[in-house]
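Quick one:
INPUT:
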């Protein structure tokens, strides 16, 4: 099986390889694991188990998978043309929904000629994206299916971004006390790598990571002034916590994400930039023009896997506008919404952290568990 696993990492498994070079049972299992995200139903109906050598599957079944895999070829073909202009050689085929390690045209894999470019075509074929994982290169970008070659290619001048290079250090007593007052524990702060600026110990640094790599930072003063570090990737805060999550919670701020963790939910992400003033009256723009929500599209591969998305945005008009804008993009049918409990006769709690602070972790857990299907009347 070692051969198959290596192939899966580095090369697309071709029809030829699947059906001719490998024993039938191996071919079936490799095919199933490659195509599982897209053809889950078909695969489960045939009881094919990835990496099993006792697969009850006929060669005919294998052929069917492989043929189906090319349903999206026109879309992928268009993407491929755009990508190859950039010097990325896709070799034979690259199936949507899979990751491939290719040669990076910028650094050519360095001295060791590594296949350092992690390349991915999104499941629905709407765009492709890549990143070179060699520390002294870091070339990354994205090509959209529609419109011109819309590129977000940015070569990081500072792709060796580290906490040290950003001038970050572990939280000191002042900020730990700030979080303690909000019922956020040191354990949660540590797991989420919350830091402070070393030259201004009153500034919180929320580190943004993707695939474990530091890709940016958002800063916050105790006086509630926010700004983003230069070149920060537009992604959801905590995105690594929702890879492969069937159910996710989306909140409006980093401290709300930390609050959800105190209530037992790690499968939570925060939007990076707060809420819009109001819901846009216009139709949804195409993805490449949807600049205010690029952070969603950049995390689409993870969001697509979620069957249920609980919107736990703030209990004010901008927070509700954000929920609506998210639901429009994520598909209202899989969105649920929390209802923040009453604070007193006249008002309700504002967000996850307020509930945690004044009602406790169990109460916050119940609020999330009692989310209801999202409706525009909410
Ligand atoms: Zn490179």
């Amino acid at each position: 099986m070692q051969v198959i696993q290596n192939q899966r990492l580095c090369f697309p498994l071709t029809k030829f390889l699947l059906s001719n070079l490998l024993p039938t049972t191996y071919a079936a299992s490799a095919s199933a694991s490659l195509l599982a995200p897209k053809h889950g139903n078909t695969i489960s109906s045939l009881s094919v188990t990835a990496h099993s050598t006792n697969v009850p599957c006929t060669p005919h079944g294998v052929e069917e998978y492989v043929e189906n895999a090319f349903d999206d070829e026109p879309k992928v073909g268009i993407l491929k043309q755009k990508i190859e202009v950039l010097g990325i050689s896709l070799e034979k085929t690259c199936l949507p929904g899979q990751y491939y390690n290719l040669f990076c045209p910028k650094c050519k894999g360095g001295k060791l000629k590594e296949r350092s470019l992690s390349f991915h075509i999104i499941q629905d074929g709407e765009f492709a994206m890549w990143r070179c994982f060699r520390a002294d290169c870091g070339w990354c970008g994205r090509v959209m299916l529609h419109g011109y070659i819309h590129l977000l290619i940015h070569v990081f001048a500072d792709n060796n971004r580290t906490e040290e290079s950003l001038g970050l250090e572990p939280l000191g007593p002042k900020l730990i006390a700030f979080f303690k007052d909000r019922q956020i524990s040191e354990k949660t702060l540590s797991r989420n790598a919350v830091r402070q600026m070393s030259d201004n110990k009153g500034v919180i640094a929320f580190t943004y990571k993707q695939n474990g790599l530091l890709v940016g930072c958002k800063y916050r003063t105790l006086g509630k002034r926010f700004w983003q570090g230069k070149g920060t990737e537009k992604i959801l805060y905590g995105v690594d916590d929702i890879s492969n999550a069937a159910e996710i919670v989306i909140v409006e701020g980093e401290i709300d994400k930390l609050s959800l963790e105190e209530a037992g939910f790690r499968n939570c992400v925060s939007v990076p930039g707060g809420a819009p003033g109001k819901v846009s009256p216009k139709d949804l723009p195409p993805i490449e023009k949807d600049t205010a929500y690029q952070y969603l599209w950049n995390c689409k591969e993870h969001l697509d896997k979620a069957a249920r998305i609980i919107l736990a945005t703030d209990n004010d008009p901008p927070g509700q506008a954000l929920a609506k804008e998210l639901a429009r993009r994520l598909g209202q049918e899989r969105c649920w919404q929390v209802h923040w409990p009453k604070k007193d006769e006249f008002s309700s709690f504002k967000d996850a952290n307020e509930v945690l602070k004044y009602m406790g972790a169990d109460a916050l857990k119940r609020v999330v568990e009692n989310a209801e299907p999202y409706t525009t009347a909410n």
